[in-house]
Request: fold
Amino acid sequence: MTIDWGNCRVAVLGGGGFLGSHLVDHLRELGCEPVVPRTADGWDFRELENMQRFFVEHPSEVVFNCAARQGGLGYQRSHPADIFFDNMRLGLNAMHAAHGAGVAKYVNVVAACSYPGYVDGVLSEADYWSGPLHETVVNYGFTKKSQVVQGWCYDRQYQFKSIHLLMTNLFGPREHFHPDRSHGLAALLRKFYDAKRTGAADVTIWGTGKPVREWLFVRDAVAAMVQAAESYDDVEPLNVSTGGGLSIMELALLIKEIVGFEGELVLDRTKPDGALVKTFSNERVREAIGWQPATSLEDGIRETLAWFDANYAAATAEG
Reply:
């Protein structure tokens, strides 16, 4: 699909969030002014009528769906049914209304937690249906997986064009750093930053430090989304990933150096490691759209740290 972004009507669902806000910035750089519906303005897309009304008021040719309803860890533990029900409705309503409104291209972001949760290794798209989701995320991950199925169904019955991007772990400016919402790289970055600021003697790392994970800079993810909108038309899901990874200990040592923390690292081996290796192949995305990450992990962490330092109060706020 050839897209003239400067003359294209685009909607970004979830455009006020971490990933969505960077996508909006990138589209504006391309000369596009996307419509960004916000809950604060009355757009509650858990109700199909609201979603349909949105497309009547804002006819769109391309829709990016970055919307999700998660909350912090405490909320996830105490409200698993609400998370499941809300995200099922959000996903189903968005695609159904987009189809009904004649949207030409629907770009759906799918969380990597929708992959099987009890397998180790480098996961390719062929592994997507190879096992159950992890019990800790099944209520959320299943809702994202169901949207892939919805895409298949709407393609077969209506020839509706949707693509589904399986997004690996992201990081970058505007990430959440509150303990109830941060995870992985952002959580480690805050630990080292706070330890340096307070003069702490050490930083504790959960587990053995051996598990291997990968981290993709948010603007590289956005570039992949735009390139996929332009040149990928297959309903089969596509990994957006670095194609590699590093151990938690290697990541911690890199962050320690970038932050300038001079204390010790302490391993809390009473905490679980999870899968020893969980990264994602990017062979298909490189072949399909010619995309690969442009930002090194070190450069991305340095930029994220600079943003975090300048926006500490907002970045660490609850909510």
User: Anything to note?
Assistant: The chain has a mean pLDDT of 94. The two ends are 38 Å apart (CA to CA). The longest strand covers residues 105-111.
